[in-house]
Design goal:
104 residues, mainly alpha, globular
Length: 104
């Protein structure tokens, strides 16, 4: 099943960092396969939190995590106010997709 393949790929990425030199190609393929756990991981490695947020919202299994994810980033002492504002804007722009979590 695709979810098992995705989880196995994610385990490999956590175990070995030789993939870093191929990060762009890996990200492109993970997006094409809709491997949102993998894309979230890769975006977090790049500190691209807004893209990671979109990955979470794109995955029905991860959508429930979105509030905690956004809250942890907004409360993070290591992020600048500019980064926090970018995350908030992304969240607000995607709120309609998020809102569908509770309506199902």
């Amino acid at each position: 099943p695709p979810s098992l393949r995705q989880e196995n790929l994610l385990a490999i990425l956590h175990f070995n960092d030789n993939w870093i030199q191929y990060q762009d190609q890996l990200l492109e393929r993970a997006e094409r396969c809709q491997f949102y756990l993998v894309t979230k991981f890769l975006y977090l490695e790049q500190a691209n939190y807004s893209a990671a947020l979109i990955s979470i919202l794109s995955d029905p299994r991860q959508k429930v995590e979105v509030f905690n994810f956004v809250q942890s980033l907004v409360e993070s002492a290591s992020l600048t106010e500019l980064r926090k504002e970018s995350i908030k804007r992304t969240f607000i722009s995607k709120i309609k997709e998020f809102y569908s979590i509770n309506s199902n």
